[in-house]
Design goal:
two-stranded antiparallel ribbon, 29 helices
Length: 660
């Protein structure tokens, strides 16, 4: 009698004989095994040779992907193929066993391996060419034609346009984080509430602009009919970030003329323009050649300044200077020396490092009575000061993870165990035995990735994966119980012990190994970032139901201390063992994945979208520039802007690389 395994292989072979269609046979098995979750551009296995095509890939692309798996096949000994041994866990695999050994699914996998092992020379060349095309990306990626002003851009624009400092967007409906940022085009819908808020803000801003006369100097001349025409032309050019069309000019002139009082007429024009889509949306790309330079000016200003172009940028657009690389580079370097660039970078940092989570975090007041709103604000200020110093003083930006110092206030000095500095947020070296380094050793990261009363290895590991490695960890399966067993006096446990369920439960193990294995190395730091040598558990109970802490009937307390095992590693990064923030920082700083992630995060913020396969060459080239500059962040900004503005340069660079 034939063995079960042989029968399954024969059955799989018969299936290939009927169709031989990868898309309907092996591909669904790989999808069900959730291989795509890690084997994609943002997955934990992004550095491997296995990358799934986009979720919306057509049949031809999926078929080509199936043939490209030949690079993971040992054609002389198919049973030794990585394509077989990895997903079946016959050899170490970060994702664990995804296809059971000796199962019908494995039989289908083996049949496909046998098929691609027999590819002819021409078929093999085609399969390998597919992988080259995948790594090169497709054609030029498309940015959204129009981008709505974010709330911060709205506030900054009315500040620079009208001199208004009231930040009216604080009253708008809150924005949502999409892909890690608030400015992503996918999250820029216009709700009825937001439209109403725009209308109310326009009315108030227009009234304020002319309260007490033309106090902000918006009218360019003495009030008259001719002055009205000039006002509409010049103010409209700034408000719409381009010259007005003749019909627009006439329409707003008529609106101005409806009021006998020129100031009232100007107020009416301002109110109307502030509600126009041409004000509320800025042009990111222009199909009309006449508007190309103006679109470039807006793209530069909102990317680098988070506000409208200034007079010099408008003038450069009019002179045609933004059509040349030299002209754009000149403007970028000028703009980076302006305080508005610092403001925009602060916005990027606050979203990337999720300051918002700390401002809304609560901590157990009994365990951490000294953690207050002022403490949270101090942590944010330290992180902002730290990053700003690295960027604007041309430091090595990867010191973000390895610097042996922080910027300390009295609130932070207590947590860090260092003397309070003479002035708030002075640079202070961490003690050598503190094991702190960079952002990972600062209160911001350690507190925002913790629970109210205890540290959270899972949250800390997830933050490192998503924010610093740009790797997406799949959501837990529906219905999975995410609650950990409670800590009791009868069974005291460390977080590591309690989370052992994550490694024994198959539905949890794969993803939690990616997160928890990182977070365990940070367990010597509690929920507010203070260092501890042991986990301290406090159990409280009353002798009687009526007992209280009035001094007559004190509550009984029992303190239990447990040793901490902080041995950890970053799955997917070779030789990444660590046991402290200091050591993890060194791992990340030297990781090409982390270096590239810094570029990706800024790309997402600047473009308002996630990168696609078409952007991979740009990401690689900018990362090379970043690395070659000694990781100077200003050079990253310049490189990214120039490659985006002049995409042909990417082609030239690629051709030069291939010719070497």
């Amino acid at each position: 009698m034939l063995s079960r395994t042989i029968l399954m292989v024969l059955a799989a072979g018969a299936l290939w004989g009927q169709s031989g269609d990868f898309r309907t046979t092996l591909f669904p098995i790989l999808e069900k095994a959730n291989c795509r979750a890690c084997h994609n551009a943002d997955g934990v296995a992004s550095a491997t040779r296995l990358h799934f095509p986009d979720a919306d890939a057509d049949a031809d692309r999926i078929a080509a992907f199936g043939n490209s798996l030949v690079v993971l096949v040992d054609r002389g000994n198919p049973d030794a193929s990585l394509l077989l041994r990895k997903p079946t866990a016959r050899m170490p695999h970060t994702g664990g066993e995804r296809i059971k050994q000796n199962s019908p699914e494995e039989a289908v996998l083996k049949a496909w391996i046998a098929k691609v092992a027999q590819l002819s020379g021409a078929e093999l060349a085609t399969a390998l060419r597919y992988r080259e095309l995948e790594s090169e990306g497709g054609g030029p990626s498309q940015d959204a034609h129009l981008r709505r002003l974010t709330h911060s851009q709205y506030d900054h624009t009315v500040r620079d346009l009208l001199g208004d400092q009231t930040a009216p967007a604080m009253q708008f409906p809150p924005e949502d984080f999409v892909n890690g940022f608030l400015n992503q085009s996918r999250g820029q819908s216009l709700s009825p509430l937001l439209v109403e808020a725009y209308s109310d803000a326009a009315e108030k801003l227009a009234q304020s602009a002319f309260r007490g006369g033309d106090t902000h100097g918006l009218l360019p001349c003495k009030p008259s009919a001719e002055c009205g025409k000039r006002f509409v032309r010049e103010f409209g050019r700034k408000a719409f970030r381009r010259p007005l069309e003749p019909a627009e000019q006439q329409r707003y002139e008529s609106l101005f003329a409806k009021q006998p009082d020129s100031l009232k007429g100007a107020q009416l024009v301002v109110e109307a323009m502030l509600q126009s889509p041409h004000f509320l949306f800025w042009t990111n790309t222009a199909s009309d050649p006449k508007l190309k330079a103006w679109a470039t000016a807006s793209r530069l200003s909102y990317s680098l300044w988070d506000t409208m172009p200034d007079a010099e940028l408008f003038a450069a657009a009019e002179r045609g200077e933004l059509a040349t690389r030299a002209g754009v580079e000149k403007q970028v370097r000028r703009m980076l020396s302006d305080p508005r660039a610092h403001e925009s970078l602060d916005d990027f940092v606050s979203q990337w490092l999720r300051f918002d989570r700390l401002t809304t975090a609560s901590k157990d007041r009994r365990k951490f009575p000294y953690f207050t709103r002022e403490t949270a604000n101090a942590m944010i200020t330290e992180a902002r000061t730290f990053v700003s110093d690295l960027v604007w003083n041309d430091g090595n930006f990867m010191d973000l993870f390895t610097a042996n110092y922080g910027y300390v206030s009295p609130e932070l000095a207590r947590i860090y165990g260092v003397p309070a500095p003479a002035r708030d947020f002075e640079r202070v070296a961490f003690p050598a035995n503190s094991e702190r380094a960079g952002i990972l050793g600062q209160g911001l990261f350690l507190a925002l990735t913790a629970k109210p009363d205890e540290s959270s290895p899972t949250a800390r590991g997830l933050f490192v994966r998503e924010q610093f490695l740009c790797q997406h960890v799949p959501d837990p399966p529906p219905g999975v119980n995410t609650n950990l067993p409670p800590v009791t006096e009868a069974k005291p446990q460390t977080n590591r012990d309690r989370m052992s369920e994550h490694t024994t439960n198959a539905s949890c193990a794969t993803c939690h190994k990616l997160m928890d294995a990182v977070g365990f190395g940070l367990e010597k730091f509690d929920a507010v970032g203070a260092r501890r040598e042991q986990m301290v558990l406090e159990f409280r109970k009353k002798k009687d139901e009526d007992d209280d802490e009035d001094g007559k009937h004190p509550i009984q307390k029992r303190i239990i201390t447990l040793p901490l095992n902080t041995n950890a590693y970053v799955a997917g990064i070779p030789n990444s063992e660590f046991s402290s923030p200091q050591q993890l920082g060194a791992v990340l700083a030297n990781s090409s994945a982390c270096q590239e992630c810094v570029v990706k995060q800024y790309f997402r913020f600047q473009t308002g979208r996630s990168e696609t396969a078409a952007d991979w060459p740009l990401i690689r080239f900018v990362t090379d520039d970043f690395r070659n500059s000694g990781f100077r962040f200003k050079e990253l900004i310049l490189s990214l802007v120039l490659f985006r503005e002049f995409p042909q340069e990417r082609v030239d660079v690629a051709n030069n690389h291939q010719s070497r």
